[in-house]
Amino acid sequence: MPADKIQHYGAALYEALRTRKTIAPLIEQDPSLTLDDAYAINLDFLSRRVADGEKVVGKKIGVTSKAVQDMLGVHQPDFGFLTDWMHVEGDIDIDAKALIAPRAEAEIAFILKSSLNGPGVTAADVLAATESIAPCFEIVDSRIDNWNIMIVDTVSDNASCGVYVIGNERLDPAGLDLPNLHVAVTKNGEPLSEGHGHAVQGDPAQAVAWLANTLGAYGVTLDAGDVILSGSLVPLAPAVKGDRFEMTLSNAAGPLGTCVANFV
């Protein structure tokens, strides 16, 4: 795709983020768009945020579970970048973070102690490179009209990432059965959903390996210190001001940690 078209779509997504006004699906605007085009648009979109002072602090994989794929009608994972501006400590101010139509996803975050450079990364490599894991809410959002997305749209739109919150607990993954970790989510004090680690490509570590290998094809590494969001364990849930989501991550021995996403 010509550079000017990539810049056109990157600028449109950036403007949508800053003005909180959605745009028509990119694949409808240009049915010839490929996944490689989408990634190039993603990078242009990101470059505009970095120029504003944001710093890349991690990467994310999304649309990994069947429940989320069925909900969105996107049947392969997407991928994108995390910046320091996306990281929220405490309450989530919907207006300050320019969220349009946020939805909450309960995930496991990986904090890396060494880099991963695909191709050829395995789940075992991911565990060896991981300093800790933590319960996490990713708040996804879409700059595309009515969440009417296909894979090209969501990759272009930085994997529909809004913001994220990480719980206080830092867990050593060694000895943990990640596929069988359990998450229970409440919304406004009422049970909402439950899931297990195996909902994410069979194993959250395998999902991170997929991300390392996929980004490796574009010359991007997962770096020491990066936060990696491994994908939702449960169906995503719409959020509005006043909503409070809480997730509890546990194994057979009991609770391991919690995370709260409180919208104000």
From TrEMBL:
Residues passing through the membrane, by range: none
Cross-referenced Pfam families: FAA_hydrolase
KW ATP-binding (keyword) present: no
This protein's UniProt keywords: Lyase
PANTHER family assigned: 2-KETO-4-PENTENOATE HYDRATASE, ACID HYDRATASE
Lineage: Bacteria, Pseudomonadati, Pseudomonadota, Alphaproteobacteria, Sphingomonadales
Domain Fumarylacetoacetase-like C-terminal: 102-260
MF (Gene Ontology): 2-oxopent-4-enoate hydratase activity
Source organism superkingdom: Bacteria
Protein name per Swiss-Prot or TrEMBL: Hydratase/decarboxylase
UniProt KW DNA repair keyword: no
This protein's GO CC annotations: cytoplasm
